[in-house]
Design goal:
Layout lengths: L2 E6 L1 H4 L8 E4 L3 H13 L2 E7 H6 L1 H6 L7 E5 L8 H14 L6
Parallel strand pairs: 1-2, 1-3, 3-4
Length: about 100
């Protein structure tokens, strides 16, 4: 059975534990990169990561963009939304269906 992970700062990700998701409170780029690689090699199908955390490890995330699993999804942090997650969603939809149907 596949699992779902959430990575980011404590304030932004703590609530996801109540939903039964695996929560990883991490803000250091090197540790986040290693964690993503470890989760990708395990049974994690989806990795939610806060936008600020994702910005620090974009090279690592890009390695998994063409992989079936895991799906890495950017989510806003408590501190705010950079818009990176929505841009990534628009790009994924456009790639999948040939045009951006979300606009």
């Amino acid at each position: 059975m596949y699992k779902v992970a959430v990575i980011g700062d404590t304030a932004s990700v703590s609530g996801f534990a109540a939903l039964g998701l695996s929560v990883f409170r991490e803000t250091e780029p090197e540790k986040i990169s290693k964690l993503i690689s470890k989760l990708a090699a395990s049974d994690f199908a989806v990795i939610y990561i806060t936008e600020p955390a994702a910005a620090m490890v974009s090279d690592t995330i890009n390695k998994y963009r063409s992989s079936k699993l895991p799906s890495i999804v950017l989510i806003p942090a408590i501190e705010g939304n950079t818009g990176d997650g929505m841009r990534a969603l628009h790009q994924a939809v456009e790639k999948a269906v040939g045009s951006d149907i979300l606009n």
